[in-house]
Amino acid sequence: MSCARKLWALVQQRCPRCRTGPLYERCLTMHEHCPRCGLRYEREPGYFMGSLYLSYGIAVSVMVALFFALQAVLADWDSGTVALLAVALFAPLTPWVSRYARTLWMYFDHWAWPEEAM
Ligand SMILES: [Zn+2]
Fold first, then answer.
1. In angstroms, what is the span from residue 26 Cα to ligand 1's centroid?
2. Contact indicator for 31, 22 with CB cutoff of 8 Å
3. pTM as predicted
4. Nearest alpha carbon to residue 102 among 63, 36, 55, 35
5. What pLDDT is recorded for position 28?
6. Residue 13 Cα, ligand 1 centroid: separation in angstroms?
């Protein structure tokens, strides 16, 4: 499978094994198993703890970028107010960040520790 197709499956939040089954059935509710190939998404209890690190990194990166972009546009505003505005603008994106953090974590995990090696 080409790298572009793998990347597209990740962007579409598809199963890391078959790359066709959806990971989520609703906003933040994941399927337990892939509806297409049957892969169990949560390999072990606490499996998605690793995605919290990714979520944190993504959130901080987006908020820092947003802060500097807002500070450039609102140059005469206080930095604290701009930081609060950046946090407020980022807040609606948290479900999106959480979903992609889990998806990235699953793809990383399946790349680093493929099923055959387990
Ligand atoms: Zn699958």
1. 17
2. yes
3. 0.86
4. 55
5. 87
6. 11
Sequence-distant (≥ 6) Cβ neighbours of residue 10 within 8 angstroms: 103, 104, 107
Q: How far is the CA of 22 from the centre of ligand 1 (A)?
A: 8
Gap between the Cα atoms of 9 and 27, Å rounded: 18
Q: Which residue intervals of the chain are DSSP H helices?
A: 3-11, 49-73, 79-90, 94-112
Return d(Cα 52, Cα 71) in angstroms, integer. Answer: 28
Distance of alpha carbon 12 from alpha carbon 8, whole angstroms: 6
Q: Which residues of the chain have pLDDT under 50?
A: none
Nearest residue to 90 (alpha-carbon basis) of 62, 118, 116: 62
- Name the token pair of 41: 């998404």
Note the Cα 4 to chain centre separation in Å: 18
CB 57 within 8 A of CB 111: no
